[in-house]
Specification:
The protein contains eleven helices and 13 strands. It is α/β, with parallel strands linked by helices and about 290 residues long. It has a single domain, classed as Spore Coat Polysaccharide Biosynthesis Protein SpsA, Chain A, CATH 3.90.550.10. The strands form three sheets. The protein has a nine-stranded mixed β-sheet with strand order 5-4-1-6-11-8-12-10-9. Strands 2-3 form a two-stranded antiparallel sheet. α8 crosses α9 and α10 packs across α11. The structure holds uridine 5'-triphosphate. The site of uridine 5'-triphosphate has 22 residues, from α5.
């Protein structure tokens, strides 16, 4: 059973400046809930009991968010409403630990900081800036594959063929409709030579073998230690599987996707959906008239 998860959240968020100059991008709210809260909730819903968040400079707000705030609790206590319960619940969702990545040297380097914490156990990795909306939490979907094969499992999603060169792409032998045993991982392949249109999607189950692989991996793109490069190394000694997950992924690390996510999530919320829809129709009408 996998009980530990690692959430890397130390990145600089350069694609979301100036918002991310002094605030963590993982705290950007979708409506009223910080992105990383959705991520923590997914881990908890998947049965994770112990979460290590990799944080860094300027990321204190993340720690405060999952800590208690007595003054606030006192202030909203009388109401005893849903918000109060949610605020009280936040600090007891799971055992949440923090470690600071000293230099921002890439996702692979961030994972290295989890070594002592996860020891000899396999663990889940959930990127702190990526939300997945699904019926069965995607981490749970990966755990189910892990229980069968006891090997590393990567969540992948289909992307348009002509856009593969923007993603980390996997290739391999199809075991069933949504499951592959990998023989290739390739960062940003050319469209003509790409082994598939299945892109790495920000959720992983990793075996402890990843640490040795990371040690052997030289710095890659952007002079950073890339997790995908370490997975290529790991593939030399261990099997890796990919699962085309059921659900929809939202990468809030880029501005356009953040806007789309906000709109979609607003339309999913009962208290906002009809007003937001009416407002959208109105501004689209006005916009089309004016252009
Ligand atoms: P990204 O590559 O999307 O984040 O990493 P970034 O580097 O902050 O983004 P840009 O390109 O500058 O805009 C995915 C996740 O991994 C974490 C990030 O915080 C994010 O949640 N990460 C990335 C780390 O924890 N450490 C790193 O060195 C890099």
């Amino acid at each position: 059973m996998i009980k530990k998860a690692v959430i890397p959240a130390a990145g600089l968020g350069t694609r979301f400046l100036p918002a991310t100059k002094a605030s963590p991008k993982e705290m950007l709210p979708i409506i009223d809930t910080p992105t990383i809260q959705y991520v923590v909730q997914e881990a908890v819903d998947s049965g994770i009991e112990d979460i290590l968040i990799i944080s860094g400079r300027g990321k204190r707000a993340i720690e405060d968010h999952f800590d208690r705030n007595f003054e606030l609790e006192q202030r909203i206590k009388e109401k005893e409403d849903e918000t109060y319960n949610e605020i009280m619940n936040l600090s007891s969702l799971a055992n949440i630990y923090f470690i600071r990545q000293k230099e921002i040297n890439g996702l692979g380097d961030a994972i290295m900081y989890a070594r002592q914490h996860t020891g000899n156990e396999p663990f889940a990795v959930l990127l702190g800036d990526t939300i997945v909306d699904s019926v069965i939490p995607v981490t749970q979907q990966l755990m189910d594959i892990y229980e069968q094969y006891k090997s590393t499992v990567i969540a992948v999603e289909e992307v348009p063929r002509d856009k593969v060169s923007r993603y980390g792409i996997v290739g391999g032998e199809e075991l069933s409709d949504k499951l592959m045993r990998l023989n290739q991982l390739i960062e940003k392949p050319a469209v003509e030579t790409s082994p598939s249109n299945l892109a790495i999607a920000g959720r992983y189950i990793l075996t402890p073998g990843i640490y040795k692989a990371l040690e052997k991996t030289p710095k890659g793109k952007g002079n950073e230690l890339q997790l995908t490069d370490a997975l290529i190394e790991l593939l030399k000694t261990e099997s890796i599987y990919s699962k085309t997950f059921e659900g929809k992924r939202y990468d809030i690390g880029n501005k356009l996707d953040f806007i789309k996510t906000t709109i979609e999530f607003a339309l999913k919320r009962k208290e906002f959906s009809s007003d937001v829809l009416a407002f959208m129709k109105e501004i689209i009408r006005d916009y089309e008239k004016a252009n």
